[in-house]
């Protein structure tokens, strides 16, 4: 499975498909940090929110790089549909971690956040990592749901991706009647900017993990039935 | 001589089965709900040591059947069971539109099959040399000709010795030298106790005497036991003006005319 993960990451980078989402990530980060300094944790909260569609799009691109017949060859070579599916998700998660690393480092390089003591800086980065990871799981799951192996057409893939990303934000707004229906992106941003209790953070983590698990299950189920 | 080798290989393999037969139990398949069934109520089994030739017109469902057995497709109903651990599948068209060179791709696929780097390098070198891919080692996959890409497709299926080898039109696009290699490769798999399924519409499978025949038509599968009689292929050049007469005479004499091609000596 690791070999297939490596092969897919290699194809993602070697074909140049990794460039577009990276540029998109740098563009949104430039807009985010171009207006002056902010508290690191608050900035990371917003950064995780805007990174969500980029990470989902990147996942779709990564999974779509491989020709359909090659995906089938990989499945036969591995001897397991489950491991072939998992290898794609793992590759997308690794690529997502690279974008998150950029998102965590860039604000310090461009002076977009207020500096503090080393302990405060480390704490901010850890919190930032946490809120970005809360976005990564749902983003990979949404991107996977929009990939060609599931949607079968570019138009349907784009529709799933855009609709999913918009709904994740709109249904997560304060006052939404069904905030539990979407990953807690907006709630996480609010928690990072306004502060919250450890219990609230735990509940958001549980919601993100549950949403990721359910969406990943749906993706896996659809992949099993649509080859 | 080849027929004798087939017989020997089949006998040897049947004496040392280590696999269980692959079963297709009441297998139905359609690609989308509401569309016609591509395959209906297919029951069959592939014994270790079997060579099965899958025949049928274009679009009959040969590739679909092979992909079901390879584990690429899942039956809509029924099940395919006891598929062996190592399956080699050669698709009808190798997907050359991807990153990497010939050796890079093959080494990556060997790693996916669980081969360690040293074993992967050995397996890749062996198949690259055997299939005449030496000159293309560092060529990028999209730059390969159709036939060369097909050789890469063949090589990736053989990097780990398969217990079940599935060849979808393996002769398509291959040069004469590589076409001649295919029967030998099939016999090696069978001699190890593996089984081979091969689809063909060019009449090349006459090179595999002793093979069972499966015919796919109208969504159903008809199986026939191996022909016990041994046959040979003789390529004969005749005057173009006498072509029709020569073919008619050969048929009158009970010979099986496989195909007629205009060019000779290729």
Features:
heterodimer; A: 227 residues; mainly alpha; 10 helices; 0% strand; globular; B: 266 residues; alpha/beta; Rossmann fold; 2 domains; six-stranded mixed β-sheet; three-stranded antiparallel β-sheet; 7 helices; 33% helix; 19% strand
Outline:
The complex is a heterodimer of chains A (227) and B (266). Chain A has 227 residues and is mostly helical.
Describe the structure.
The complex is a heterodimer of chains A (227) and B (266). Chain A has helices spanning 2-14, 19-33, 40-65, 68-78, 81-109, 118-145, 148-151, 154-170, 185-194, 198-225. Chain A has one domain. By secondary structure, chain A is mainly alpha-helical. The radius of gyration of chain A is 18 Å and the shape is globular. The mean pLDDT of chain A is 92. Chain A has 10 helices and no strands. With 266 residues, chain B is of the alpha/beta class. Chain B folds into 2 domains: 2-235, P-loop containing nucleotide triphosphate hydrolases (Rossmann fold), CATH 3.40.50.300; 236-266, no CATH class. In chain B, α1 runs parallel beside α6 (176-191) and α3 packs across α4 (117-130). The two termini of chain B are 23 Å apart. Residues 1-18 of chain B have low confidence and may be disordered. The interface between A and B is medium-sized, with 26 and 26 residues.
């Amino acid at each position: 499975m690791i070999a297939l993960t490596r092969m897919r990451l290699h194809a993602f980078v070697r074909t140049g498909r990794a460039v577009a989402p990276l540029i998109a990530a740098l563009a949104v980060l430039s807009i985010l940090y171009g207006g002056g300094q902010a508290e690191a944790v608050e900035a990371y909260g917003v950064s995780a929110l805007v990174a969500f569609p980029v990470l989902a799009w990147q996942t779709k691109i990564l999974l779509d790089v491989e020709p359909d017949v090659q995906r089938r060859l990989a499945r036969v070579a591995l001897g397991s549909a489950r491991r072939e599916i998992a290898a794609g998700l793992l590759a997308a998660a690794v690529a997502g971690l690279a974008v998150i690393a950029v998102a965590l480092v860039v604000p310090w390089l461009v002076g977009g956040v207020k500096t503090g003591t080393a302990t405060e800086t480390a704490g901010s980065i850890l919190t930032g990592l946490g809120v970005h990871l809360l976005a990564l799981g749902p983003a990979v799951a949404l991107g996977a749901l929009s990939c060609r192996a599931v949607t079968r057409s570019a138009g349907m893939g784009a529709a799933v991706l855009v609709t999913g990303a918009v709904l994740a934000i709109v249904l997560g707004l304060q006052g939404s009647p069904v905030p539990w229906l979407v990953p807690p992106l907006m709630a996480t941003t609010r928690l990072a900017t306004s502060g919250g209790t450890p219990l609230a953070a735990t509940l958001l983590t549980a919601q993100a993990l549950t949403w990721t698990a359910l969406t990943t299950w749906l993706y896996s189920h659809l992949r099993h039935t649509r080859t | 001589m080849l027929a004798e080798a087939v017989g020997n290989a089949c006998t040897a393999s049947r004496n040392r089965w280590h696999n269980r037969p692959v079963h297709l139990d009441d297998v139905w398949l359609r690609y989308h709900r509401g569309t016609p069934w591509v395959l209906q109520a297919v029951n069959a089994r592939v014994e270790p040591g079997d060579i099965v030739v899958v025949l049928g017109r274009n679009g009959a469902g040969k590739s679909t059947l092979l992909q079901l057995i390879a584990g690429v497709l899942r039956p809509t109903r029924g099940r395919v069971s006891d598929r062996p651990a190592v399956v080699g599948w050669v698709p009808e068209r190798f997907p050359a539109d991807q990153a990497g060179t010939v050796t890079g791709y093959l080494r990556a696929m060997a790693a996916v099959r669980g081969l360690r780097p040293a074993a992967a390098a050995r397996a890749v070198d062996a198949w690259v040399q055997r299939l005449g891919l030496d000159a293309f080692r560092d060529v990028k996959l999209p730059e390969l000709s159709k036939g060369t890409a097909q050789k890469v497709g063949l090589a990736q299926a053989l990097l780990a010795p398969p217990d079940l080898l599935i060849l979808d039109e393996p002769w398509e696009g291959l040069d004469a030298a590589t076409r001649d290699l295919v029967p030998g490769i099939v016999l090696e798999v069978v001699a190890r106790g593996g089984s081979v399924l091969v689809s063909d519409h060019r009449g090349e499978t006459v090179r595999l005497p002793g093979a069972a025949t499966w015919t796919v038509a109208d969504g159903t599968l008809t199986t026939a036991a191996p022909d016990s009689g041994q046959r040979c292929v003789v390529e004969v050049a005749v005057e173009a003006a006498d072509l029709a007469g020569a073919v008619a005479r050969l048929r009158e004499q009970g010979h099986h005319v496989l195909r007629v091609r205009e060019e000779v000596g290729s």
